[in-house]
Amino acid sequence: MTQLTPSTEYVLRVMAENSYGTSPWSSIVTASTSGSPPPTPRTPHLVNSGVHSLTLAWYSSNSGSNNANQQQQQQQQQPTPNGPTISYTLEMEDEAMGHGFVTVFDGTGTEHCVGNLRRNTRYRFRLAAANADGRSRWSEVVTLSTLPDRPTTPRAMRLSGPPLSNRLSLVWDAPEDDGGLPIQAYRLEVRLPYVPSADNTVQSSHMSDTWSDMNKSLLGTGVDKLLCWPRAIG
């Protein structure tokens, strides 16, 4: 007998037949087929990526399959209060380390956050499902990447050469940490001071008060706040 359903009990009996007729039925025999491992799960998918972590989730089986036998197995393998318990093994490979695939999760859940990863790095993942009757094949491998980080502050900004009447030359050192990506540009901002006009001469005794009042009056107008200096982008 072939094409039977896994984990199913069958009741059987047999009779003999010749040209004169048939024999009585034999005594009944009860037999059960063994179980089968779960079908191959779908490739795990990304839920959230961080600088040092990746969160993955997965489904119990390939619900998009058109194979009738596999769909029947999927229905039988769905975990129910009285049904088989399905566990999942998630493995990760860091090609830079050369260790191959290593297990990062083994349990009945369908989501896991892998932490302590390197930023802006590609990792490969695969998934298998298992029950009391064995383990499925591995899913297709998926490659996911952690995010880069922001660079740290540029260092030691200073004057380069003596100041001139209408220009200043500045230099600075690159950040100690580029965040995992090459520095593409620097943005220099400058606070523009209020300069009294010749027609509105302010006595020196009131200069500090006028400067303070002017700062307050110009807040939010784009004058007394940090402005990007166009020539400093590079």
TrEMBL record:
Coiled coil: none
InterPro entries, per database record: E3_ligase_FN3/SPRY, FN3_dom, FN3_sf, Ig-like_fold
Pfam family, one: fn3
Database matches in CDD domains: FN3
Positions of region (Disordered): 29-48, 60-86
Start and end residues of each Fibronectin type-III domain: 1-36, 40-149
Compositionally biased residues, Polar residues: 60-69
Cited Gene3D superfamilies: Immunoglobulins
Protein name: Fibronectin type-III domain-containing protein
Organism (species): Echinostoma caproni
